[in-house]
Amino acid sequence: MSPLDDVVSLSRLQFAATAMYHFLFVPLTLGLSWILVIMESVYVMTGKEIYRDMTKFWGKLFGINFAMGVTTGITLEFQFGTNWAYYSHYVGDIFGTPLAIEGMMAFFLESTFVGLFFFGWSKLSKVQHLGVTFLVALGSSLSALWILIANGWMNHPVGAEFNFETMRMELVSLSEVFLNPVAQVKFVHTVAAGYVTASMFVLGISAFYLLKARDIPFALRSFAIAAGFGLASTLSVIVLGDESGYTAGEVNKVKLAAIEAEWETEPAPAGITLIGLPNDAAERTDYAVKIPYVLGLIATRSADQQVTGIKELKRNHEVRIRNGMKAYAALSRLKAGDKSPEARAAFSALKDDLGYGLLLKKYTPQVIDATEAQIKLAVNDTIPKVAPLFWSFRLMVGLGILFLFIFSASFYFLVRKRLASQRWLLRLAVCAIPLPWVAAELGWVVAEYGRQPWTIAGILPTHLSASTQSVGNLYFSLAGFIGFYTLLLVIEMTLMLKFARLGPSSLHTGKYHWEQAALAAQPAAH
């Protein structure tokens, strides 16, 4: 491995580590903020103090998580300048726009009103405080929206053009960037996953209280809200998911083929590989168990459109790489001073494939003189390793099915008033608390690893995007980030466990004792 590869690999590892740490905090913020809105809305409509206490108790856990998320998120954005300087130079005009809007519109909205949420209970009326809680939730969702618009553009770059005069991508249509279909799908999928995470968090802790026969009125109401919200959110994740964005852009075709180990282009509609052992070297899936027609129906939403296989994609990419070599030669002619109409026309005809030509920079500085062996290596690079995507996706889907079962069973037994006797379900809910985070992290592995070898799909390869850093600096900063973020995670877990164990009765000592006694006398009613 060359020193450049070390720098790129370490930069990727550092960004992946910080991003995945950060996303340990984000889903709970996204989902719990809206659960707080639901709880406080019921308080405003009914006037029952227990819903006010529910809002304050779960809001305390929300606040701990929110503070940690802000801390990790700020450093993440700074890495675009420190570790990915050429990326920032090349596409900063486009990528920086939604991030700037996120900071001005969403982050400050969320951060301002979160203070009013905690300190405004005695200063604001019921309706005013509910409005504050709503704005906190809205700010969280808007923050996710603008960040995912930026991320969606990386997967499906629209509304921008390459300018050979500045050697950068430049924004030509803000509306296309904001309305990017891949970004919209990512937003819906990500926030719905956050709702599932928060619902399982509330459901599991409430189940713990029910198992311990403590704070029963509080726990039952929290459990009911979490079960209903979680069931609707899980259905949203499953039904909407990412599949509607699979065919929008070349990178999503590659990602789809990789996560399904679709080596060949089959007659439509293609079957789905339920399980198997992907073999990248032989380009086949050993011991594959397939279900006919399902993949084609899901991915294309039709019975007559094909799902392009990996081998055909590689043949298509070879053509684009060869065209990219010609585009690079035409660009070199322009940079040498030939600005004639013929030179401009030659580059314009091929510029969409320039990024594919840049893949050869990994193997030779002379793109236009690349050998057949180097072209073959670049072609192979256009497909990420299949096995990590294949298994990450299946584990994520398996967890989604488990969440659907837990929320459905919880909702069913609540409606039938038989929850108290279903101790197996309560124990399962407690054990399942961390699993939505596992599913969310797997989702980001699929999304980001599946985009490789690109930082900007079809435009800028990852190996050209990194800053000029020393390997020693990267190891030092990586160790520092992991150490600091692990400390933050330990602090959050300690605080969360402390306040969860204290429970809602710590808000008003003895408040619910009479109601708990009555409920405990009739366990079958719950």
3D structure, described in words:
It is a single chain. By secondary structure, this protein is mostly helical. It is 69% helix and 6% strand. The protein is built from 19 helices and six strands. Strands 1-2 form a two-stranded antiparallel sheet. It has a two-stranded antiparallel sheet with strand order 3-4. A hairpin with a 4-residue loop joins strand 1 and strand 2. It starts with a helix and ends in a 6-residue tail after the last helix. The C terminus is likely disordered.
List the helices and strands and how they pair.
Layout (H helix, E strand, L loop, with lengths): L2 H20 L3 H21 L2 H34 L2 H35 L6 H30 L4 E4 L4 E4 L2 H5 L2 H31 L4 H25 L9 H10 L12 E8 L4 E8 L2 H7 L9 H26 L5 H10 L3 H5 L13 H10 L4 H30 L7 H9 L3 H15 L4 E3 L3 E2 L9 H32 L10 H8 L6
Antiparallel strand pairs: 1-2, 3-4, 5-6
Helix pairs in contact: 1-3, 1-18, 2-3, 2-5, 2-7, 3-4, 3-8, 3-18, 4-5, 5-7, 7-8, 7-16, 7-17, 8-15, 11-12, 11-14, 15-17
Brief summary of the model shown:
The protein is mainly α and 526 residues long. It contains 19 helices and 6 strands.
Annotation keywords:
disordered C terminus, two-stranded antiparallel ribbon, 526 residues, mainly alpha, globular
N-C termini distance? 62 Å
Helical segment count:
19
User: What average pLDDT do the residues reach?
Assistant: 88
What characteristic shape results from the CA principal axes?
globular
Low-pLDDT stretches are 510-526
Q: Level of helix content?
A: 55-70%
In N-to-C order, the SSE pattern is HHHHHEEHHHHEEHHHHHHHHEEHH
Coarse structural class: mainly alpha
For the largest beta-sheet, the strand count, sense and barrel status come to: 2 strands, antiparallel
Spatial order of the strands in the main sheet? Answer: 1-2
